[in-house]
Fold these 2 entries.
Entry 1:
Amino acid sequence: MINRCDLTIEFDEPSRRYKTGEEVTGFVTVDVNKDCRCNGLQVDCQWRTHGRGNQSTGSTATDNIFEGEWTAGGVHRYPFSFVIPNGPCSYHGHVLNVDWYIIARANIPWSFDPWEEADFLVEPGWNTAYEPYLTGDPTCSSNASLEHRIQVAQSGELGTVIFGFAFFLVGIIACLNFAFDDESSVGGLIMALIFSAVGAVTIYFGLRNRLATIKLGEIQVQIPQKRLRAGGIVEVLIDIPPASRAHLNKITARLVATEVVISGVGTNKTTHTHIVYDDPPHTFEGSVDRELLEGESAHFSHRYRLPYDVPPSFHADENDLNWSIAFHVDIARWPDWEQYRPLEVLPADPRAREEEQAIDDDDWSEAPPLTEDAVW
């Protein structure tokens, strides 16, 4: 079946590379094959995820650029123009990709609606330093969302304990059954013991932080700036009010960026993750081989620079690029304390980056580059 018309999209910028805040312009060309009426030639500017997760989209603008009659053999060019919002930027990772598209669709009555799309790249622009950066779903980057993710991380400890207890209980029951069953196999008993061991280890990791607080008291973690730009200074604070005498081996913190996407629906949902950035642990000054006395609070702080070339946070339905700081308190002869705290990373200020490159500045940290499969 021949389409009544064919659509093509042309960009005024041949490279198809744009910065946030710039205008993406071009033409939709309509090649008419049969006489027809168009109830609307609609052009959308939108971002879309693709990769291993379910697709998420975000439409920033829609424009109806024509409505009327087309005659067979005619060729028509209609201009389009959209201002690119301040994010999200294009991102090409391992299990998550974010790309921008111009999509043209002609509404032809009693016929298949012809459509065409063309992708383009969006990079951080000068407006990133002055306007709120859009990470996809704005509700996911709010203060309430950050606090909610902290609560989810902490509540996950209880879920780990419950899961581990279930494994441990099943293993113990199976061990007892095999112990009193003369016809039981050695292999079955070994499997039951493995179940019990896995459950016990899982319970330990779920209770580890609670065990650590017996020595250290309720550890207070502060991140004064929960939203920081690439190239900015990361500052973290830890207060420990020892509940009893304890010896610290050291306290470390490291930044981690993880792609998290979900594929499938219902009971067939699968979560895929990939770490795209994981810097070496940074040791808090004064925390190495430190003796803590009961009732004498200890305060630790550390600051270092985040590299300029890291990707910004991204949040959408079932597709995320999450940043967090992993804290680890190493206690001598006692279970360690570990916790992840989420934060938002925004694109670097282009002016600051250019100034940084022009100055032979002392390096704040030996942070690793992004993995080769994560380019944005």
Note: Confidence is low (pLDDT under 50) at residues 359-375.
Entry 2:
Amino acid sequence: MGLFSIDIEKYYNEQAQAGKSLLGLFVIQYPLYCIHANIQDSTPDSLDSLDRVITDFIRVKEDISPFQMSSLLGTSVTLVKQRILSLLSDELLEKTTKGLKLSYDGEIIFKEKKQLRQHKRSYDFYIDGVTLKPLPMTFYSHYKSKFISEYDSYTRTWRDGRETIERPFGPDLVHSPPDKTIIIGNLFKIPKEERVDYKIPALLQEIEDLTYTKMTFFLMVAALRGNETVYKELIDPYTIYTISNDLTYTESLKKNAELFLPSIENRIKNLEFKLFTRPRKEKDDQDPIPTLTTNWAEIDKYKDSENGCFNFAKDDIIKAMKGLYGMKTLDSDSIQNTRTNLEINITKDILLNSSNKGKLINDLMRKRDYRFGNTDNNVFLMFVHYKTNDPYVIELIRFKELILIARNDEEININWVQEKIKDFSVSFRELCISSGELQLLEKLDIQSFMSKY
């Protein structure tokens, strides 16, 4: 999914090394606010020095023109005019019959230098939509482009040519009412020496008019199992990982997400995967496949799901696996379905009746596969784990491993086949068909049976 930048395999393997199994990843839209404010701020601006030179010119010659100043400064007339308008707006200059002169405040600031200049400007603050506390500086850079506004929309084109307007904004927690007094109080609670860490002007003096835009930000909840105990961890799906920061990948994923944990910890600990099957319609050729979803919509009703992850009826999970993977002969005896584990035991019958034998063998070798869900249903992905104790399937896996090694190191030909499969109980032809290696079978059949000219 292009929406997130998480490295699933890296995270999975790092957890496996720590003795934990990654069961799945939930996703939620966490509420934020973008506060639009008019502020007064005495923090030095990068153009203050230019303004000081402009006022020096005006003190000497009231009728000096922007063109003359720009020629002497070696800059554009447009920039000089913009700075003059800014000084007029801040009431540091005033117009006279001759031209311009310093106002009373302008004299104190630029001539007598007894007071810092106050900038009046518009400024956007990003705050937590639940606690109403300011967000750290990192959310003003890399993460800013990941925010979803209540006004965002895009056009979606369906397979049948229809176009619909989609609005991705859908907070999974209710925004706290944006109380102006609380917001301003939280901004000024940040000590001056720490304000730079929150992208707050260091010498912020006053916040005047205040409006807001509702926004959201995706967070993930990882479901992990270790020693039959399930853990729910809040992680950041947009993290930028570098080996130079002395953090593991897991620590990097958790670093910026921990800020939001206190607001949702009591809820995410009870998250579980569920299956929903819509009613069958007259136009349906077959029963609808269950949709993967979660219990988030009614999470407050779940009080004892902290050590759970899967909330599936066995009939539903069988129907879902049959529909998703084409396992036509899957039965209840082959599925281990508990609150903490979802594992399928692949037998010869299940494999041979699968619609994609090659993929199933590959998944068996990795011992897992994952299914992407729909973020609207609070699902990013769920893992399905595989095992087998069937001698026939075990032989197929061993054959597949030999094929993979040979493709990298040597040429597969008739001599290779005769040498490598002599201790197999199954013929080469059957091994190829059952493991989905039909192209390899065709290649060797051509070598064996077609005339060479």
Note: The mean pLDDT is 87.
